[in-house]
Each structure stands twice: as structure tokens, then as C-alpha cells.
């Protein structure tokens, strides 16, 4: 059972896990984990599954999915979905998730369950949910990792039932982007217990950003089991850099599957919101709607 704090209702709630029985078998049984680690987590299989989610055959799942997980479709733009992936990357109606206009506030760039980690070390094992994070491995760049020592990390876990587009949390300049190859394990807490280095093993895409007061920051999209593709909608490989972006602009989206977005900030640049700090300290994720403040700049 996965419990999290809902910032809107101010209650601790129980997560409805998509494919919960499969995850239990895949990561908590010996044969299930062997097959998952050596077969199911491979990229080609997630792409094959993604091809099914792109097909007309998957459209029949949409109505049951909406009903089972209580998704309020009144929040989203009206559309005719040709397949499940069309539904999966549905868009909010304009104005449904406004971003703060304050230049001091850094906002949630994903609608997700958040954990935060202040005072980062170059090589660190996090007590919360048994995660193992090494900044150098996460970024695939030792020199870059040293720039975030003593800073903070924000980890946003997206479930399959969530909105799966991700946005820039502040305005700034994109100066570099690259891909780190890897597998595609689930990022559900059940899986993290068995694969504590999941964020270091999974495929990820890294964007390095600059801001006059924040300095350097990183935004990392992490692939996951069943994710057929991470799509960048704000830029491509041929986009000239640096690229100016505005707070709230859609950066990209994940095709089918739960996944994770990670932000890194440098030391003494950013003050995290108190509820995120308190809940994370006791191992409790905080569900935060897209656009709500995660903290503010240190002047």
C-alpha cells in the first residue's frame, strides 16, 4: 500500500496503483524479478508495448481507465482519442493549472508525487524509500555533478493515471541537452525496493538550464517500464542553443507508463517549500498539482 500527502485536500491518501498485482509479482517474486530485470525492462519491449498503445486496439481501454481511477475529464480539453496514447497525453484546459507569475517562485513542472532532498552529496544513498543516487551517474558527467554539491534535488513521480506532460518550472535559458542510455524499470516504490539504483539504471534525458539568480539547474526526465518514448516538444536535436523559455511552457511528454522528472538546483539558490521538506523527511510523498509553488529563490 502506497500512501502520500495530498496538498489540495491536506489529507494522507492511498494511491490506486495501476497494474499493482503485476508489479508485486514482477519485483517481489524471484522469477518475476529475474524476467523483469533481464527481459521486460528492455527498451525494445517497451517500444513494442508502446506500439500497441498507439493502435486502434487500445482505444477500448479508455472508458474503463477513466472510471476505475476517477479521472475528472472536466479538467481536460475535449478531444476524440484515436488510441490510448492519445488519451494518455491529454492536455489540461487553458487556465486549469496556472503557474505563479512571481519570478521568485519555482513551480511544479509536473503534476505528480514529490520528494525533496536538500544538501546533496556527490555520491549519496537516500534513506527515503531506499533510493541510491549518485549525481555523477545520474547526469553522466562528473564535472557537471560537482556543480550541484550541497544543492537540492526535487523528484516528481508520475503514475500512469496522472497528466503526463512536463513543463519548465521557471523562465530561463536552455544551454545543453543530451540523453543517457539505460533500461526501463518501473519507478513505483514497490520496484525501488528491489532496484534501489533505478534512477541510475533507467534511460533519461537531461537538460541544463541557466537563470540570472538561480544559476545552473538541471531537469531530467527518467523513462520507466512501459514508457514507449520521451518526447521533447519545446526543442529538437537541431534547435540552436541557447534557447529562451518561459515558465509554464510545455517541455515535453511521456508516452504510456508512469515515470519521473528530477530537478537539481545549486547550493544556496533555492528554498524548498516547508510541506515538501517535512513530508519528505518522514518518507511521505506530497501530491502537488501542476503549476503550484515548490519553493522560492534565496535573494
Explain what the structure shows.
The protein has one domain. The chain has 10 helices and 18 strands. The protein is globular and about 50 Å long. About 5% of the residues have low confidence.
Q: Sheet with the most strands?
A: 10 strands, mixed
DSSP strand count = 18
Q: Helix tally?
A: 10
Specify the helix fraction band.
Answer: 10-25%
Averaging pLDDT over every residue, what do you get? 83
Strand order of the largest sheet: 2-1-17-4-7-15-11-10-9-13
Rg for CA atoms? 18 Å
Q: What string, H for helix and E for strand, traces the elements in order?
A: EEHHHHHEEEEHHEEEHHEEEEEEEHEE
Residue runs with pLDDT of under 50 for 5 or more positions: 22-27, 32-36, 38-42
Q: Which overall shape is indicated by the principal axes computed on the Cα atoms?
A: globular
Count of domain modules: 1
Task: Annotate the secondary structure layout.
Layout: E1 3-6, E2 11-14, H1 20-28, H2 30-40, H3 43-53, H4 62-68, H5 84-88, E3 105-107, E4 112-117, E5 123-125, E6 132-134, H6 135-139, H7 142-146, E7 152-158, E8 165-167, E9 172-180, H8 189-194, H9 198-201, E10 204-211, E11 215-222, E12 230-232, E13 243-245, E14 250-254, E15 259-265, E16 270-272, H10 274-281, E17 285-288, E18 293-297
Helix pairs in contact: 1-2
